[in-house]
Amino acid sequence: MFLQVNHIQKKYKDKQVIQDVSFGLEAHQTLSILGKSGCGKSTLLKIIAGIEEQDNGHVLLNGKNIGNIKSNERNIVYLFQEPLLFPNLNVFENIAFGLRIRKLASADIEQKVEEMLDSLELKEHSKKMPHQISGGQKQRVAFGRALIINPPLILLDEPFSSLDVETRATMQQLYKTIAKKFKITALFVTHDLKEALLMGNRISYMDNGLLEIFESKKAFIDADKTGVKSEINFWNNL
Amino acid sequence: MFKKPINIISFLLLFVFAILPLVLGFGFAVAYSFGLIGVLNKGFTLENWLALFENNDVVISFIYSAWLAIASLTISVVVSMAIAINFNKKFSKGIYSYLVYMPLAFPSIVAAFFFAQFLGNAGILSRICYQLGIIDKIQSFPNLINDQYSIGIIIAQFFLSLPFFTLLYTGLYQTERIDDYTKLANSLGAKNRQSIFRISIPILFKKSFPNIVLYFIFKIGAYEVPLLLGRSSPETVSVLAVRKLQKFNLYDIPQGYAIAVIYTIIILSLLMLVLKTNKNEYDI
């Protein structure tokens, strides 16, 4: 397994946010994690990213335990619910950020960023500041900024939750395209059923600090707790 | 222009209490400096303005005031930003959040007297150093009051402005989500030093720039601290203007008003700069 998570546990004061989570993920696959607010899915991502520390368990990336590696040295990118573009940098510099801190040559940076802007259809916005572009464009910049450093693993924490329905659908399509193009390995957290089904090669459900990975999409749909059946019934009985 | 009566009232209040006094005061100063009004003036003349620029006193005074404001502000901004970045949690609640307000309770004149007593050649610090055996005579202590480099003024101004900037930056640290940006920068591979210099400091500086300019305007006009802790030459703008307006030679009064006119023009230009900087900030 490319990513192996073993018996992760996390407690905040009296609340056991993550009880005991274990799973594996092959390279170039996206695992959707569906769950209600407060079920521990964001905490799980933060632990894998190194932003939070687990109480027990360990995370292996490509067979190597990354528990003692600082977040800036893990090369795992955590994408927040909001795009969080650096407000002091324009679109070009936001995407170039990861390359600049790695001290790449200016010509290389320019070439890579131009290519990324092209892939994300953001070329005409490259000189704009974050407050001058729309929510969907911001999210695309955030993707570009993460992808350009070619991270082995991307953690997406409800990245489209703040977007309107139409932009969200466009971004979901865009993600599918770039995931294939850049061979992304990712964990995609969402509380939206349809999004979980659309985005993941594999689908899981998190509840009360426990994670269950389903064998297939059919198994996910058939399980009562995921709420897919009640959603289907709702639309059928309308 | 005015869609509701309340808009007319608010505009009138703004005009009567904010704009009108400023315009009248400025007009009075201009008229006085050109000899159009005033008991000893005899009609329009450029003499007062020419006399003002006969020597470099006024130019030096403006440069000196700007230097004092820039020096004390730079130290305050750097120290308070460092506090906000490194100890923001401590200063957002608990005893530290109260302690930081303390210097705000000191009027400038009290702070000036305190530093005169504390930093003077035979002051408290000098005596402590003597008792500790750091210096062999009390008079050996370096002169920090009325000194050549205005160190006493800069320290006093720093003391007075530090709480303002500490509160500003600890507030901005929370509202601008610097913690989230730092985590994100780290997740993209930045070391702590890189995220501080490439992200935290530029965001804090950009957001506080209007406040820095406004505080600069406030400090360039400082009177009590430079009067008590500074030398007689060079003088700050306010000290020079007050000397011209209130001291012995009545023929110097128009020059005092001319200084006030120059000062007002510089301040208004800086305010325009602030307004222009804040313009065009919008979200799509």
Indicate the topology.
The complex is a heterodimer of chains A (238) and B (284).
Chain A: E1 3-12, E2 15-25, E3 30-35, H1 41-49, E4 56-61, E5 64-65, H2 71-74, E6 76-79, H3 91-101, H4 106-119, H5 135-147, E7 153-157, H6 165-181, E8 186-190, H7 193-199, E9 202-207, E10 210-213, H8 217-222, H9 228-236
Parallel strand pairs in A: 3-8, 3-9, 6-7, 7-8
Antiparallel strand pairs in A: 1-2, 1-4, 4-5, 9-10
Helix pairs in contact in A: 3-4, 3-5
Chain B: H1 5-33, H2 47-52, H3 57-92, H4 95-99, H5 108-119, H6 124-131, H7 151-175, H8 178-187, H9 192-220, H10 224-229, H11 237-246, H12 253-278
Could you characterize what this model shows?
Chain A has 9 helices and 10 strands. With about 240 residues, chain A is of the alpha/beta class. In chain A, helix 3 packs parallel to helix 5. The longest helix of chain A has 17 residues, at about 165-180. In chain B, about 70% of the residues lie in helices and about 0% in strands. Chains A and B meet through helix 2, strand 6 and helix 3 of A and helix 8 and helix 9 of B.
Number of strands of chain A: 10
The whole-number mean of residue pLDDT values of chain A reads 90
How do the strands of the widest beta sheet of chain A line up side by side?
6-7-8-3-9-10
- Spans of chain B of 5+ residues with little confidence (pLDDT < 50)? none
* Counted beta strands of chain B: 0
State the major sheet of chain A. Answer: 6 strands, mixed
Structural category of chain B is mainly alpha
How many helical stretches of chain B?
12
Distance between the termini of chain A: 44 Å
Please give the radius of gyration of chain A in angstroms: 18 Å
| Oligomer status | heterodimer
What's the helical proportion of residues of chain A? 25-40%
Kindly report the average pLDDT value of chain B: 87
Proportion in β-strands of chain B = under 5%
Biggest interface, CB < 8 A: A-B, 28 and 24 residues
Shape of chain A: globular
Assign a percent range to the helix content of chain B.
over 70%
SS-based structural class of chain A?
A: alpha/beta
Radius of gyration of chain B: 23 Å
